[in-house]
Amino acid sequence: MTNDRIVWKIAGQAGFGIKVAGQIFARTFARAGYHVFDYVEYPSLIRGGHNVITARVDRDPFYSHMLPVDVCVALDRASIEIHTSDMRSGGTIIHDPAATRFLPDQLARDDVCLCDVPLVEIAETNGSKIMANSVALGATIGMVGFDFDVLAGVLTDTYGRKGSAVVEANIAAARAGHDHVKSNCLECGHTLSGVKEAQPERIVIDGNEATAMGAVRAGCKLYAAYPMTPASSVLHFMAANERDYGLVVKHTEDEIAAVNMTIGAAFAGVRAMCATSGGGFSLMVEGLGLAGVSESPIVIGLFQRPGPGTGLPTWTAQGDLRFAIHAAQGEFPRIVLAPGDKQECFAFAAEAFNLAERFQTPVIIISDMFLQESHSTVDPSELDDVAIDRGKLVRDPRAVPSDGEYLKYEITDDGVSPRVPPGMGATLIANSYEHDEYGWATEDAATVRRMMDKRARKLDAAASVVPQSKLHGPPDSDVTIISWGSPKGPILEAMRWLEQESVSVNFLQVTTVHPFPAERVSQILEGAGVTICIETNQTGQLAGLIREHCLFDVDHRLGKYDGRPFFPEEIVQRVMEVTGSGRRQAAAG
Amino acid sequence: MVDAKLQPADFNTTVRPTWCPGCGNFSIWGATKNALAGLELEPADFAVVWGIGCHGNGADFLKAAGFHGLHGRALPVATGIRLANHRLKVIVDVGDGDGYGIGGNHFIHSMRRNLDLTLLGHNNQVYGLTTGQTSPTSDQGFATPSTPSGVIEKPVNPIALALASDCTFVARGFAGDIAHLSDLIAQGITHSGFALIDILQPCVTFNKRNTYQWFRERVYKLDDDGHDSTDKRAAFDRALEMETEERIGLGVFYREQRPTYEDGLPQLAAGPLVDQSIEDVDISGLIEHYA
């Protein structure tokens, strides 16, 4: 049968090269003009354990993964047993009987085809069994009737730095897998219809790469971090590029050092960032407050995974929204941005530096494993629109008073003071203690109040220039979905399916979660039909913020807190359930 | 900038010190100003980072570009400043609880890192600002409100710890000898690499044990005793004297020239990061990598 879309899965134990196979698969179809999304599920182990990459390729733009799988490469017996239920009726499981010892009559479904491919034998014939993943890729390409040369090109680029012998062996192994399927598995073809029109060149990146590119583009000069999933690959990206882009990357002794180095560098006049997950952010909390009171412009990435404690290190969650907003003792301004897709990861990362410097206060980018470690095709022209705004940074030494009268914390209308870094001749003091305009510590009641008010005014000024909430879909709809962060993709996908079911639905995406956009959210919700708040947590933290700031109770919530992201199917099902429940009788409050 | 030679008093602010009369911090403040004036360091040439403790109140008394940070976290802030602008000399003032206790992790790793920082450890062997509890350097048996029956564990030996952590300039000064301390601080600032100057600082209010008199009965100058500061084993032996012989050496225990952390960063060769333009960073090379 001919399709515009293929959902493909590769599963097996860690150490099979599953991750690299997923990258090669995604890049192959992206180069041919397809839109691609893939995400990884893996345990916190280096070898063993069950690893899965699920990829969707589609001729038309789309927003997320989906459930029924067309072709699954099962590298071990357990993978067949686990994923048979994920298959579309008529789908195909590719496996190596020598490795799985699995017989066709053991398959739990009779509407799924089992396709035998001697992956290991073919790999060994071409040099080494470690190339079984390349054989599987070739078999997949053969099964979907795709152009093998595109795969060969991506294999060449992926393994090029290992030498031409490695490249040639992998291409030969993939070719043999392709040819085996072409001559042995004729009934279960899943032929893609192909891309007709010329498409713009697209790249395949994950959220961490998009975030890091945004930071580099914005002129980040110091990145300090301690490795922690799912933020670690930002550290790897920045470190790999530090010499070419003139930035310093420091793997620190702990996250406390990371945030304090970031503060030091920001104080000294460069753009600086650190990123971590909830556990590391917990260690950064005192530093977050230091950045607030010392008015240091830093950017912190908080990329969530399920907690508390060590939690589920390699899975996803949105349990830290309240934590990001409330972390650290005392009251001080902060800005919290929640990107929902790769383009927003890039744009918000870049904008975070502008906001940090304009308002001289910490900016937190809150995201999660599902967004940061899933890959999407992105048009590079969408990674271009960056303007640099350094706020009141003083860069001309002639503007610095030589008599030592510079006021680091000068009281101004918008709360933002001129910012003179050390090294320009001014004497100044940035202070963790409450301080006067010069920076000297004070306990004077009137001065304390003036400084608290000065800092608070910065957030008032920021509210109108931070990224604004987005309303997706028709303004007047029977159902309004409200969410933040990574569920954006599955929600937009679900909306397309709901439209086909003639359900009228729109989606309010809260992008800046602090300062909370109470006016805009209230305005949209007061006129809304049935409201449902969707977030990957247990307690409904955004729903609680809406209640707090808008005096509005959402009608329904859909929460998920098992480490897994939402599937669009789950959202469709929940919306269908609640549409029968009728419109709100009266607006609350 | 100015024709007249800098005087120590040029580094005074209009805020008058709040330390107890007789506090060792007065001497360290004075010695620091002597060293800065002697090296003719202008405000544009250096930055000072302070931890939290009695010593940290000095942030308001020393005229400089300063950052008064969190308890225990002065070193990473100083590291960030130094990486962002390595034209600056960066001096870090910490206390014993601040620098050797809660900030102990940063202390060890900053020394092996060998950034060009000068760490002044105001070591009064007691927590002054929180009214007299035991510190990581308190002697065994020292009775305090948090250890009323006396300290059970052994004290941190900052000099031995620095030697074991590959610190490239390890020295000890005494707040009771300002001239000697001024010279040590100047040497530390001039040293290329991480310099630790552990400073014996009597606390006249909360430490009635390690008094000026107690120290004077035990201190001697390493230079007067034939110590070779290029001999690391000899330095270790001298560092351990405090524990075994009740003898406390003052001066430079050890120094070596080793490439600094900054030397290992070619991206700093063209000049400080803070001078590099960020207006139009071209990321097309990054994008190409993912096509």
What does this structure look like?
- The complex is a heterodimer of chains A (about 600) and B (about 290).
- Chain A is an alpha/beta fold and about 600 residues long.
- Chain A folds into 3 domains: about 1-190, 3-Layer(aba) Sandwich (Pyruvate-ferredoxin Oxidoreductase, domain 3), CATH 3.40.920; about 205-385, Rossmann fold, CATH 3.40.50; about 470-580, Rossmann fold.
- Helices cover about 35% and strands about 20% of the residues of chain A.
- Chain A is built from 19 helices and 23 strands.
- Chain A has an 8-stranded mixed sheet with strand order 7-6-5-2-4-3-16-9, with helices on both faces. Chain A has a 7-stranded mixed sheet with strand order 11-10-12-13-15-14-21, sandwiched between helices.
- In chain A, strand 6 (about 85-95), helix 3 and strand 7 form a beta-alpha-beta unit.
- In chain A, helix 5 (about 130-145) packs across helix 7 and helix 8 (about 205-215) runs parallel beside helix 13.
- The longest helix of chain A has 21 residues, at about 165-185.
- Chain A is globular.
- Mean pLDDT of chain A is about 95; it is low at about 580-589.
- Chain B is α/β, with parallel strands linked by helices and about 290 residues long.
- Chain B has a single domain (about 10-290), classed as Rossmann fold (3-Layer(aba) Sandwich).
- In chain B, the strands form 2 sheets. Chain B has an 8-stranded mixed sheet, with helices on both faces. Chain B has a two-stranded antiparallel sheet with strand order 5-6.
- In chain B, strand 9, helix 8 and strand 10 (about 250-255) form a beta-alpha-beta unit.
- In chain B, helix 1 (about 25-40) crosses helix 6 and helix 3 crosses helix 4.
- Chain B is globular.
- At the A-B interface, strand 9, helix 8, strand 10, helix 10 and helix 11 of A face strand 2, helix 2, helix 4 and helix 9 of B.
- Strand 17 of chain A pairs parallel with strand 2 (about 65-70) of chain B, so a sheet runs across the interface.
